[in-house]
């Protein structure tokens, strides 16, 4: 009986240690990280840096090519941030929200357009960084730190009055809200990108010629929308921290 109980406990622990999916793991000191996420993230960052350098290397009065495209992207981001934060507050936050939008947009489209699975790794496979929950949680936590920083910088310790206004009874709800914001941001982005890639992969396996193409086109559209939603919500949270809880614009 004791032997049977020991085997049961051993099996329980073994099952608890199983992971879903394989990852290309790197050891950095005492930390284990997903190498495939770092590789594709560096590629995305490299693409953005190359595009930025190409657009600013020889600036023309009448823009064309990459310069015209990057100026259009900058104008789009500036309008997005201005609509969320208002004319007076938006300028310092254009780089942060713009970086979030561009990184997520290029990551999503890279995952949808580039056949990463053709590049073989010792374990795991390359995919969009936003296909990994660790990436989306990191982006959501950065957003949380940004709106805490915005509120604290503008109001000092008075920022924390929002947790007890209009009554201290709402304190638990206000604290819970700060936890649900990054959770909703991270799981929304992760869930949509993962679902899109899984649907395309299944359709390519079942009907490899024409059926997946409309789904892939729809995936590109939803990928762009997810980047826009994430950046818009980040701006809205920062605006809420700057203006106060429940204040009107």
From TrEMBL:
Q: Which PROSITE patterns match?
A: ATPASE_A
* UniProt-recorded Gene Ontology molecular function terms: proton-transporting ATP synthase activity, rotational mechanism
Swiss-Prot/TrEMBL keywords: ATP synthesis, CF(0), Hydrogen ion transport, Ion transport, Membrane, Thylakoid, Transmembrane, Transmembrane helix, Transport
Report how it sits in the membrane: Multi-pass membrane protein
Localization, UniProt: Cell membrane; Cellular thylakoid membrane; Membrane
A GO cellular component annotated for this chain's UniProt record is: proton-transporting ATP synthase complex
Regions that span the bilayer:
34-55, 93-113, 133-152, 189-211, 217-238
Which branch of life, at top level? Bacteria
Q: Give the similarity note.
A: Belongs to the ATPase A chain family.
What role is this protein assigned? Answer: Key component of the proton channel; it plays a direct role in the translocation of protons across the membrane.
> Could you identify this protein by its name?
ATP synthase subunit a
The gene from which this protein is expressed is atpB
